[in-house]
Design a protein that fits this description.
Blueprint: H1 7-12, E1 16-20, E2 23-28, H2 32-41, E3 44-47, E4 52-57, H3 61-68, E5 81-87, E6 93-103, E7 106-111, H4 116-125, E8 132-135, E9 140-146, H5 150-157, E10 174-179, E11 182-187, E12 196-202, H6 206-217, E13 223-225, H7 227-236, H8 271-280, E14 284-291, E15 302-305, E16 308-319, E17 324-332, E18 340-344, E19 347-354
Parallel strand pairs: 3-13
Antiparallel strand pairs: 1-2, 3-9, 4-7, 4-8, 5-6, 6-7, 9-12, 10-11, 11-12, 14-17, 14-19, 15-16, 15-18, 16-17, 18-19
Helix pairs in contact: 2-7, 5-6
Amino acid sequence: MKQTPLHDAHRKLGAKFMEFAGYDMPLQYTGIIDEHLTVRNKAGIFDVSHMGEIVIRGRDALSLCEWLTPNQVARLSPGQAQYSFLLNEHAGVLDDLIVYRLSEDSFMLCVNASNKDKDYEWIRKNTKGVVTVEDRSDDTGMVSVQGPLSGKIMAFVFGPPASSPIEGLQRFCFASVPFRGRQVYVSRTGYTGEEGYECFIDAADVAGLWDAIMEAGRPYGIKPIGLGARDTLRAEMGYPLYGLEFNDKTAPLCAGMGWVIKMDKGPFIGRDPLKAIAAQGVPQKLVGIVMSGKAIPRHQNPVMLKDRVIGEVTTGTYAPSLSRGIAMAYLAHGTDTAEIGIDIRGTRHAGTVVGLPFIKK
């Protein structure tokens, strides 16, 4: 398995590891529930150096990004970012990603770890115009600080607080800031629903940044956070995960992501199939289910309407903020959800269909 540049730091902190996207990654340190509540109430730091970074530069970089993704990249000014997708010709999701506009003719696509090689090849295959496409994943380290106290911590790291270059940084914006003679891209996109920051830095320097954040966060109760709590945090917010809520046969409209799709911006890959789906009406929608008892649903558990299977769980987990099991599932439009249930190991457990997210932030 691959290791991130912070692997030794995780081992010294007593992390329990798991394989994820070919990497040996920390699953937890003090426990998933404890780490989850630390992020909700204080602040936590995540190693996300396994994520992919693909940089597109050149005279035609903007037009290529518009062709590759369904959101309107031209609306971005340098220093802004947007959530988007890579779609195939049938409007299936190859990946969800964040597009960062570094300059007028330079963009960075932050993609999922499990898809970065596939994404890079897809982009190269569909490249046109005067551009260069570079996979910077192995040369880039990335840490994320999330939680209501994260702003105080980050201000000290890049401070002093009163004149910190990240003071006032808005959601889906980023800045290039100095750190010990190096430049760091600090952004505010997040995957937990909390106030938070992501830092992109050269892989060789990410350990020093991690240590500085841990030291600055000590008075605020910062803790390292593993993949287990990262998953429960995003699930409570109803954020989709590629491979569960999305795959290459899933149209993003079914997941309630119509706000990402800009049909009128001009041609992009998957546009015509998306227009047909929108005209016909999406056949299913992604919903949330909160369990009535103590049962905890899991991925692929059948969703029941009385005694009939009407779907299956995409994400199922325990929500520490609700002290309940929660699930996401695709159900046909117009489904009567009054007597919904989830089959867990042969026993039907009642649940209530709710709108996403499960918690309001």
